[in-house]
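Per-residue structure
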Amino acid sequence: MRIGVSLPDNLLNRFDEIITKRGYSSRSEGIRDAIRNYIVEYEWMGEEEGEKVAVITITYNHNQRGLTDTLLDIQHNSIGLLGTSLHVHLDHDNCIEILLARGNIREIKQITEEIMSLKGVKHVKLTTTSKTLD
């Protein structure tokens, strides 16, 4: 099936560099592989249940109107689930926020997906581990 996708120039240029370095024969091959990896990661996240410790890493444009306030609201509304946060200014326009979460993984995933959907958020990564290492 053919689809059309609109991408900003800088994202497409970076993608082209990566597929060339990795030896893909075409953009389509690279996109198929990226989609497969996305599906595997999503399904892996979907299989987890119970109490976990997690790190949510967020890269975003701090100039996006209202985004910083929304991220703070999410954190304040998640007291007891989200603990420590680390904020680093990457450059004039971009920041990285690292949130430590502890609790029910379904609730942590819900927060993560809420953050992913915000305009101005460039990348979100959820990393989990068991709450106790038995």
Notes: The domain at 50-130 is CATH 3.30.70.1150 (Alpha-Beta Plaits). The mean pLDDT is 90.
